[in-house]
């Protein structure tokens, strides 16, 4: 990854920029951006992981989240910040939301359609699955208690490949003595996760009908945070949506199947037509 730049938007929102000069892609990262203490090395590592999913000729901006969020931090706060960044800094862009970031991306597209050229929801939907919601609630409880080991263990067996789960458990054991140094302040973690978990998105998905951008939704059929039902519900509610389901893949789909995801994204961005008038195009990608 060349030509990497980093800085702050609005003097408080960290970002990393890479790629070329074509129409910008703005990436809204997952909730892990709240969890660990931010470091330049971690930001670059995350940017490399995300950039390989996107065409390198685009200007790619990977946004973080406010490092000291206020007590009244909410999804609306984050959406306003991103909208201002698009208006003042990057211009209208292709928006990709990963996991937690998908909540922000979808709401942004609904409330500021003129700023979103295309929308990509990666391992994300407009709501959590019931199991995913319970997991987020337990993570918030562990964070409040300063129980970082319990917080990390809540992720469980998130990979499809057993050896990756084994490596993750080994890493957790190795990091255990240093968790309080590596993890963010509990209040920041709670405020970040609560910004999304504090809302019941599943009660009324009608706001998704205001999304006008052609939309690609990519998920795994074994994702415990966003199950197939949630993904399909989101796709049906967005007037111009394509849904791609990777069979047997989990929430770590972008890590385990980066080439497959990158191909879908590239094809979507190159295509000139889209499904409109409420029609849904769904495809299943084999293992």
UniProtKB/TrEMBL annotation:
Keyword Hydrolase carried by entry: yes
Xref: InterPro entries: AB_hydrolase_1, AB_hydrolase_fold, AB_hydrolase_sf
Domain AB hydrolase-1, first and last residues per copy: 65-258
Superkingdom of the source species: Bacteria
Molecular function GO terms recorded: hydrolase activity
Protein keywords: Hydrolase
Keyword Hydrolase on entry: yes
Protein name: Alpha/beta fold hydrolase
Organism annotation: Microvirga arsenatis
Source species taxonomy: Bacteria, Pseudomonadati, Pseudomonadota, Alphaproteobacteria, Hyphomicrobiales
